[in-house]
Every structure is written in C-alpha cells, then in structure tokens.
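FIELD: query
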Amino acid sequence: MLIKCLRRGLALLAAMIAGSAMAKGPGGTGGVGLGGIGGSRSGGSKVPAPPSKHTKGHWLGGFTLTEYSPAPESWFGGRLVRAPGLSGRFPIDWLYSATGISMQGEGVQPDGRLVHIDSFGSAGWVTAAGKPTSASNDFAAGAPYWRDGDFWRDSSGAVTFPLRKGGWSAGRGRRYVPMVGASFAPGPSLPLSYYRSIAVDPRVIPLGTRVYIPAYRHDGYGGWFLAQDTGGAIDGRHIDVYRSPPANPADTGAHLTRERVFVELH
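FIELD: result
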C-alpha cells in the first residue's frame, strides 16, 4: 500500500485550515467508517449533491484509486520495545516495519488512540534480505520490509526481529542495526477524517481542494472528499482514500483504475 510519512509544511497547514469545516465532518479524526465503497456513513446528515453543470471545476480522467488507514497495533506480534517520544512499550514491527506506522505514517492502539511518526530523518528502507531500497526509483532493489534501523540481521544478513511470544521472525538475530534519530508522537499527524480525506499529488490536485469521486457517491457523504494529505507513493493521477482500519490485514481496500474525478475550483 502506500507511503505516508512526514507530511507537513505551512502550505499544507493553510490548506487544512481552509478546509477544516469539511475535515471535521461526522466523527472527525478517528471516526468510524464501515469500510469498502458504498454503505451509509453520514449518520443521517444531508448528503451533498454531485457537481452540476454550474459547479466551478473540471473533470479529470485516468486516476488510480486506493485506500489507506492507520496501522492497528493489535495486528503485530513483535517484542515490546520503547519508542522515542511515546510512553510505554510497543511491538517493534508495528513501529518500524513496512506494514506498520513506518509506512502508514500513523498507527492506532487497541483503545482507539492514534500515534504517528514525528521524524525518521534520513533513515530509508531495506528489503527482507537487508538490502537498501528506495521509493525514489520505485523500490527497484525490492519491496520495502523495514526501516533502515532497529532490526537484527540473521546469519545470511537478512532482516529478523524478536517476537513477543519468543523466538525470531526469520532466524536468530546475529547483529543488531541501530536506528538513529527516529521519534514518534501521540495523536494524529494530520486532522484527517475517515472516508472524507484523501492523499493526492499536489502537482495534479492542490491541497485544500474539494474532489468528487463518483465511485464513492453512495458512501453516505455523496462522494465528496478534501485533499489534505500527500505521500511518496502518490504520484500523478493517483488518489488514496483515508479509511477506517479494516477487520484484518488481508483487506487492503479498494483498488480502482481509469477513474474520473471532479476537481472543484476555489
């Protein structure tokens, strides 16, 4: 799925403030959605109408639509470790793996509280084999598996980590690779709302823009979203819909291609 790390800046803050009325719709950040495309989530509020011929804006085609959500802590079984910036201990793979907070940008604890990445500095990614890989060249060296630190190498140099129940994820660790400069923080990284916020490429859709997605027209909010987020994997005509965490890790959400969307003009 999709990279969501360190998405801040004054321009983004201004966009969020401009669109805060929509961003803090029913439920606000951490609100509950039903998952998938379709099904009412509006809680009985009036559903906005689709764009009319008088609505200022333009239609764009050829979009890929995907979905992302905070990573649930309960899915991870790594040894509990301290996380810089947070109190308590947390599964190491929830913090640093490519299926955890490191990739999603945010994680959700069993009690519903959110935490997010505060900084990873220049720390990149490594593959399961322990080789450096980067989003800058579409991970040509292999799929990301772990942040470049806070893991162990087994006898072959591959990534492994200790499990909470004992043992190792992929062979006994022989050498520990430290992480330098990583930090987390409580709360959300951005005031996003499930099924109302999207991540976009700002070169295609400016932050703070309202976007109508017909594929979500029956979602209870009329298919309208606010462009509030970005991500390293969101390039060109790609929109990532912020959703509530699914019931299990196998549910990666919708993946639609060649979709048309309406981009409203300010």
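FIELD: remark
The CA atoms of residues 153 and 159 lie 5 Å apart.
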